Amino acid sequence: MISRAIVSLLFLTSAIAGPAFAQQAQPTTPPLGSPAATITIPGDQLPPAPPKFGGTITEDAKTSKPWWPPTVVPPKGAPNVLLIMTDDSGFGVPSTFGGVIPTPTLDRVAKNGLRYTQFHSTALCSPTRAALITGRNHHSVGFGQISEFATGYPGYNSIIGPEHASIGRILSDNGYATSWFGKNHNTPSFQYSAAGPFDQWPSGMGFQYFYGFMGGESDQWTPYLFRDHTPVYPWVGRKDYNLVTDMADDAIRYMKELDASAPEKPFLVYYVPGATHDPHQPTKEWIDKISKMHLFDQGWEKLRDQIFANQKRLGVIPANTQLTPWPDDLPKWDSLSDVKKKIVTREADVFAAYTAYVDNEIGRVIQAVEDMGKLDNTLIIYINGDNGTSAEGSMMGTPNWLTVANGVLDLPEVEYLRYYESWGSDQTYPHMAVPWAWAFDTPFKWVKQVASHFGGTRQGMAISWPGHINDVGGIRPQFHHVIDIVPTILDAAGIKAPDMVDGIRQKPIEGVSMAYTFDKANANAPSKRTTQYFEMFANRGIYHEGWYAATTPPEPPWLVGTKALPPIEQYKWELYNIAEDFSQANDVAAKNPEKLEELQAAFVAEAKKYQVFPLDNSVLPRLLTPRPSGTAGRTEFTYVGENADIPIANAPSLLNRNYTITAEITVPRGGAEGMIATMGGRFGGYGLYLLKGKPVFVYNLLNLKRYRWEGGVGAEDWLGQSLSPGKHKIAFDFKYDGPGLGKGGTGVLSVDGRVLSQQKMEHTIPFMMAIDESMDVGLDTRTAVDDSYTLPFRFTGTIDKLTYNIKPEQLAEEDRKAVQKAATKAND
């Protein structure tokens, strides 16, 4: 029998972990061994070694003594944690930091706590998120880029290794209830399927519950949504559905159920909505509210002036801050026609509505915490954006962002007018014009993707924690980064970062706690983060003790990689004394060559330390570079019966190649109709189906044009009729007009070996057929490729065998060289 004293020593928490706020817990009454006993663990090893049985066992239960292992709980006083981060929203967006868009929830957190004015992201979605949940730099945990651009280097493979346990895992093993709501862009895109593995899903990273979407973005009306590992479709049968509200509803439901079941158990709720990443899809109610405010009638240059004045008035920028100049390659407002002004104003209204809408729903979640009586012991961290505002919508914006993703940067004016009234609805997948993004990053230069300048990396953030922040409503100017959030949470909870997790030694947390800023006496204390590097697409920056060196972006991100970039070693460097020049307005490199050289050397040192090398400024070639997936090396794919939700990475790619789709089906008596195979939907994709018994193949060219193969003029009479009962073989054969990207080709639809329809396409989709849609066999789960059928359009016959035969991509020589170069870099 092990004594109670020995067991206590096994479990007591080390005093190393906690700050002044969190007291160390002691074993509680009832005593150890009783069913209600709890214990706080040291936390250096997760999970902790199981305690030895402390009771007595004889041959007879009457003379034996039971003993229950204690329940692990966090240290006494450890707070609930509500970690919130929105998407693609720059420093000048929210009213809390001088923006014109009302964000009363962020205002509320700031008024009850602190605003941070020098807090930074990595400049891109999933890299910021990987850094946020691990407390390590994005390259350290494999996310030097988004997973869709992953290459075979440790800093870029999009795999968060087991040596980098997340905040979810650490808190979960220390007795917290952990959950993740919203965007998950940290599971490798080649692991989205039911085949797993699931160690890179939220559940594998220590989050006990997940309700959200996979990938960088999702349609908010029909999202690519999962509950834990299972696809769900909550919008079916509902006309009022939007994920922004559904997500808040589910988080509130979860917290209420947790409170009812275990009211004393603290929680970590990681709440990361898709707003305001494209597609910008708020409800009509919010669009109407914002439109009536006429926030953007003045145009983008005057909007910058207004935001800048607001920022000075609020004190979120120093009084001597300069507004950086409007770039020459962006149009000025007065150069636009009245029609174009009307179009882009509508785009900004919808973006603003999306911002206000998501802030409102975040407010509902916070209010639910208060209604449960838990707000006084809840640490709320609300980060506005995971990078600067996105300029990926082209110079005029777009009603369908997939056009931009495929290199279509200019659309006829009629395309905008066609969707003007429905902009933001389920009929659009929209993004706004580039100049709005620049304006929303006031007072800085540049936008999302640009890691070298604060327009890409400066995020407004507010933190509240009643009773522990003694300067309510204060402003904090210390220089910090998303990697500093994990140590701040651990500091507040009195929990130690583990040395070992599952027997694997952990790499050190690279962030520093910001908890020292909670004390009013430290309002202007020197930052405990003295150095921080930045890198994305080879745009580089390095901060050190009030100085900042950065490369000049050779081309803007709104060209989405369509223009060749110079060699990395030819990038120009700039230098800023940000202790005096808050907005990076004055490049002083020419006057301080020694300081510039010092910071350049510091960047190299940091890059070697954190797996930043090799630098790579390629964009589209990396999208085409081979990476692990269910399709790697396969030329034939076979399916039987109904199969839904096959992710893009596991589906056969039909881009830039010859292919044949063959469906062997059985039509029952009375006929059949329904979807046989589809990928994508309303905004791009294809579908092979029976409509009223007749075979049809539709190719949706990015919602700009649809090509349709079916019976018609010139077809034999019997081929224009419904298929008779029995077995049939339907084939669609496509011959590509390569080499080159997005070329046309000729498609032939045949039934039982006889041609039904043949026609030529002038163009095909070159890079991305879908983002948040899956491949479905036997039904269609999200949006339809055309309006001739209604979802789910389940096939009423039998799919005996569906076969895809695909040929190699037919790339032009320059495309092939670029892809080979990227692949060589990835696999060298």
TrEMBL record:
Family (UniProt): Belongs to the sulfatase family.
UniProt cross-references to PROSITE patterns, sorted A to Z: SULFATASE_1
Keyword Coiled coil: no
SUPFAM superfamilies linked: Alkaline phosphatase-like
Organism expressing this protein natively: Bradyrhizobium cosmicum
Superkingdom in the source lineage: Bacteria
MF-aspect GO terms: hydrolase activity; metal ion binding
Protein's name according to its UniProt entry: Arylsulfatase
Occurrences of domain Sulfatase N-terminal (ranges): 79-495
Assigned keywords, A-Z: Calcium, Hydrolase, Metal-binding, Signal
Signal peptide: 1-22
